[in-house]
Structure prediction request, 507 residues.
Amino acid sequence: ESSLNLKAQKAKHSKSLIFEPRIAASQSFETIYTLCHEGFQELCLLDGRFAEFQRDIFSERSQEKDRTQLTAAENTELNARLELFLGLVGGRLRLNPAVKAVEWLVRRFRIHEYNTQFVLLTFLPYHTLPIFTTLLSILPSAIPEECKFLQPYIRSLTLPPRHPIVQAATNNVQFASSLNNYVLRICQARQHYAALLAFWAGIMTEATGGMLDKARSGIKAVQRQNEQEVILRLLPTLNEGLAMKKISDLRVGCYMLLSVMASKGGLDDKLLTAMMEAVVLGWTSETIGPGLVCLCVLAQHRAAAQLTKRLTKELLKIPNLSALFVEHSKQRRVDNLANGLCLALVDRLRKVSDISGIPVIQDVIEHDILSDAQCCVIVKALVLVAYQIEDSTDAQRQARSHLATLLVTLTQMPGRSGSLVARALADTEVDMDELELKLQMAIRPAERSEL
Amino acid sequence: TQASDDDDENEVPVVTHQQLAQVFDIGPSFALPPMEEMFYQVAGLFSSKPLPQSVS
Prediction:
């Protein structure tokens, strides 16, 4: 029995990312450590954050550390250290020193057996490189259930293409959740790197689309429920992802998922509004551009209602908002967002005589950003506010005068916007003669009042 | 998908798996375009066509 045991141990010792099994089996830990530690030292030169691992998993003493002799608590602690190192080395796996360093974790701590899932997720963005097949070749026969989609590639020792990974994320709830949690954990530890976030965002964007398509393929009665389940599963990841506002790529990846969800998910207005608020809360100079586009996409699926106070406030902070609306309107519909904003601004005028939104309203109408119907509604709303506004406070008097000027400017606009404004004025229920008298200003074009 | 065609005020494009895959499946993870660029492509697929007056 002891010779069997010895044979099994030898077989385990022969698992290596670098050496042929026969050679690996004959190596002492001292030999391996010397080689691997070189790689580790080079990593330390590249990134000072590696240095802390010198005191435990890469220390001289680590050569004698045998996991099978450790208590459960010690193993848990060791796992935490190993995974912290793996997270950090993830961004460097195309470099030889990184592979050498990970080799130590394989040989000494058998991470491929004890931390299989974490190791697989760390290597997965590199599924197109030979190092991934090497990893597959040393995995134990029992791999975590959610990674079973890799089984055919383990058997044939070939590189998995991207598609089966997307399929796994679409169809295997557990795998999708592990991938999401892995990425969030790496980001929280500030160990993220561009390739990981690009990989994650791509896989999850496609998977989200796939999940929602699948949810809608069933009978009508359960479609809605299925959709809701998909959305509810993804929301925690989005909340956490958007909360890490300084990690721009993570945030923009979340914008991708939100765009897919809004377009395919049949979300209700309440959820769309919450998502829109999550987009504007904490956007930075780097994420405001894509954020605004994401808002446009979300708003197109929301009923044409005024934006919330929070959304209005954050949008008004963008200095060149109108210009951005104009620019984006050439590529896509931005009218629902612009309309929702204008409705909110008119409401602020009416309620608190706040005139700060007037230039935006003017630009939006002048640059033909709204649909015909939306434009008419806004103009009529402005006329109504001008009619209703009191003149008992300074703010009200000022608002009234600005409104009057705005209305005159709008009626004098040429082209499409001008004729829409004229149509709205002709259609309003407000008595225009009375309004002009009240504002002490001729709003309608001169030739008309002369008639 | 036919139903959305009736609602020409806000036509939501139908995006296929292939179209989405074309944004991302263009190379290894470490050689993909910047995230922002990929986002604009995704948003482009899912955005309704601009209003006629904006493109004229």
Notes: The mean pLDDT of chain A is 93. Chain A touches chain B through 52 residues (CB under 8 Å). DSSP finds 25 helices and no strands in chain A.
